[in-house]
Predict the 3D structure of the following.
Amino acid sequence: VAKQSGMGRLINNIMQAVFFRLAGALPYEQAMPLFEHAIEKTYKNKGADVVRKNLLAVSNAIDNLNQIDVPYTSWARCEMKDHEVPRSGEEPSFVRNVLDKIHTRLGDRLSVSAFEPGGVVPLGMTQWAKRGVAQAVPVVDMDKCTQCNKCSAICPHGVIRPFLASPQELASEKTPLTFVTKPATGGNQASGLAFRIQASPLDCTGCEVC
């Protein structure tokens, strides 16, 4: 609903509208005009287009409400099963003993002694957390890329990274056909090398900062 209304991933007013529709804190017919007036007052300084998108998102949220029947009896008895994260054996013990349990929602079973003294998390642990939680990931258009590397610099999770490849590496049978590059710029040091911006979907959180 947010994306269709031009709101990107911003859902605060959408969820507020749904709350008024379902909670009954105020009669819906009374609450919505007040809410829409509050939206106009809050966002009027940002321009008419911002106000329009927020009002459209609220309207679309109500139009897209669908009831889902939840089998409460069976869900109430649902048990969490242990889930093993496949590992190669190269990862630190902290990853296996602590992070994997947290990522599989078993963190409440950890004892205090499982953590480092002072609760410190060792550096470099995010490289082992391939969560794949993003609903949308960046796709690089190498035809438009200017090799400024700003997308890599701004990415808070190190998902987007620039690479230089030699002709030998590009000719390798391990290089996929979809690995599109362009001649690298940057003087003599980059002469003869190919440039590419590569994103890692499993590391991306979908923050859309890029």
